[in-house]
Amino acid sequence: MPTDVVGVLLAGGLSRRMGGGDKCLRQLGGRTILSRVVECAVGQVDALALNANGDPARFKDYGLPVIPDVIDGYAGPLAGVLTGLDWAAREWPDHQWVASFPTDAPFAPDDLVARLLAAVTDEGADMACASSNDRRHPVIGLWPVALSGALRKAMVEDDVRKVDAWTGAYKLACVDYPVAPYDPFFNTNRPDDLDAAEVILAAAALG
After folding, report:
1. In terms of CB atoms within 10 Å, which end of the chain has fewer, N or C?
2. Pairing relation of β-strands 135-144 and 127-132?
3. What CATH number was assigned to the domain covering residues 5-204?
4. Residue 24, burial from CB neighbour count under 10 angstroms (0-12, 13-18, 19+)
């Protein structure tokens, strides 16, 4: 369905807590975490790109454009958001929004983009993010392409790196999700988290 939204999958980090490498390529239930995130995101947006640094060939099986950070030095997820905004402005100039999906959150809901869009409209907000368990998830968000220049200025000139530090200057809508039977934004940062994710997968009978 047309959404006026394109998506960016954030996989540009160094995965230090997972021991390095691409944590999104770790196996969960016999599939990579990335494959689960792609499956969730692709039906919610009009196009999808993968923000990742290094050799893009390691992601060739996913058939997605791979876009490296436009800010050097592994500047964090905010750099991935900016990269997605620049990509959208260049490749999808008729689309106003970019939805960001972290590639370490394998259980994200399939109504995420629709709810984020509705929240922006209903609240007259500039952007939106998800929340659960009384905690915001700032990198699971909806971002206006029109603010790409403002974000670039903040990162390059003001050295802003924390997502909350930038969104604090704007009206941010938050879309809350319940955490029963599991938190849909559970993320797999560490090896122990993979074990916990396997338990969630089995208990919820997810594919």
Report:
1. N
2. antiparallel
3. 3.90.550.10
4. buried
**pLDDT, position 205:** 74
Phi first, then psi, for residue 24 (nearest 5°) are -70, -15
Q: How much is the average pLDDT of 4-14?
A: 88
In this structure, are residues 59 and 50 in contact, taking their beta carbons and an 8 Å threshold?
Answer: yes
Residue 152: pLDDT over 50: yes
The beta strands (E) that lie in 117-206 are given as 127-132, 135-144, 172-177
Whole-angstrom distance, CA of residue 152 vs CA of residue 116: 23
Count other Cβ atoms within 10 Å, centred on residue 117: 20
Residue 166 has φ and ψ, to the nearest 5°, of: -85, -45
- Rounded to two decimals, the pTM is 0.94
